[in-house]
Amino acid sequence: MIFRGPAIPPIVRACAVSLVLSGGAFSQRLETLVERSKSAMEANRWEQALDLNARAIERFGRKNPFLTYGAQFGTIYYRKGVCEMKLKRWQAAMESFEICYRDFRNAGTKRDNPFQNLALLKWGEAAMGAEAWELAACKFAKFTDERDKQRDKFPQGAFYINLAVCQY
Predict the structure, then answer these.
(1) Which of 80, 87, 93 is nearest to 128 (CA)?
(2) 76-133: per-residue pLDDT in tens?
(3) Domain of residue 110, CATH code
(4) How many domains in the chain?
(5) Considering the domain boundaries, does residue 105 fall inside one?
(6) Domain for residue 4, yes or no?
(7) What's residue 19's pLDDT?
């Protein structure tokens, strides 16, 4: 009899192989969820898009996603917030936009999270939906101060009407 060391159960072997092979697959699976959520949003399937964004956050956002994926992970929170707004879930939307803005900040001139400043605008709109007028006005003012005039495109007419409604 030849001694070959302790027998490795098949389940342990399968887990080990899975771990080794999953390095690039994680980001590929995240990318798939993101693409599917964008398609659902374009088709106005807000519940489905919200579910896909929430799954992306649950699966890939547990252990400091900023370190793993950078500021670009904030786009998932932004899109999740948009879905929540479309479904009139104002408080949840405000929380999503806050996380996008606060936790996934761009560094220097890099714009890995193109929605960082726009999250302030949407946060204000969600606050309006929740009838939190002072909070909305505060977020609109902060957006005005921080936005990149060249890159942050938004419907200016609606913005100023919303600001006036909040101040009223």
Answers:
(1) 93
(2) 999 999 999 999 999 999 999 999 999 999 887 778 899 999 999 999 999 999 999 9
(3) 1.25.40.10
(4) 1
(5) yes
(6) no
(7) 34
For residue 75, the enclosing domain spans: 10-167
- pLDDT mean over 24-30: 66
How far apart are alpha carbons 132 and 90 in whole angstroms?
Answer: 10
Rg from Cα positions in the chain: 21
Contact, 120 vs 142, CB < 8 A?
yes
Cβ atoms within 10 Å, residue 136: 24
CB 49 within 8 A of CB 83: yes
Q: How far apart are CA 122 and CA 31, in angstroms?
A: 24
Q: Which two tokens stand for residue 100?
A: 């996008």
Tokens (6 digits) for 27: 């980001």
Evaluate whether 163 touches 139 at the Cβ level (below 8 Å): no
Q: Is 36 exposed, middle or buried (0-12, 13-18, 19+ CB in 10 A)?
A: middle
Other CB atoms within a 10 A radius of the CB of residue 58 amount to 9
Query: Domain for residue 3, yes or no?
Result: no
- Please indicate, yes or no, if residue 110 is contained in any of the structural domains: yes
